[in-house]
Amino acid sequence: MIVPRIILASQSPRRRELLTLVGIAHDVRPADIDEAYFAGEEPAAHAERLAREKAAVVAREAPDALVIGSDTIVVVDGDVLGKPRDEAHAAEMLARLAGRSHTVMTAVAVQWKGRALSAVEQVDVTFHPLSSQEIVAYIATREPMDKAGAYGIQGYGATIVARVDGDYFAVMGLPLQRLVRMMASLGVSYTFGYVASQ
Length: 198
Known about the structure:
Blueprint: E1 6-8, H1 13-21, E2 27-28, H2 43-61, E3 66-76, E4 79-81, H3 87-97, E5 101-112, E6 115-127, H4 132-140, E7 161-165, H5 168-172, H6 176-185, E8 188-191, E9 194-197
Parallel strand pairs: 1-2, 1-3
Antiparallel strand pairs: 3-4, 3-5, 5-6, 6-7, 8-9
Helix pairs in contact: 3-4
């Protein structure tokens, strides 16, 4: 059995935390790619393409490694909510999400020995109603400013989420159960912290 080198093609601290949480030792090498939308590209297809591109870029630089790429987007009323430009933009997003449901789409891609798999995990998230004062106070924590949809479910944002229908870890940024099954399909097994290939 061989313990493969694993590289996370992302600078997201949440994704690093999640891999560490389940004992998957890894290096971090963010992929520098163009994240612009293609004309007519659907949100899920966009997220999956970016995850695959991130993994492919790093895999070219480290062909011996198993590379994980991921991308998370927030969708409401068919519109994609990225990271807020400023506080006013964050407030606009949070007001739009307050008291209703939206969809988080997290794509994950795994590349290993020239083979690649990818998938998109979709999760419905429902917010409690939020007053304008609550929105201002949440933004003052700075937590919303670097996150798609202007919230982080693993931080202060946990107190504004009423319900999660689906994989909580996908909302954080990495669907762990889907990831380990994709790794297995490529010949890399995971058993509670131990990762190995034939």
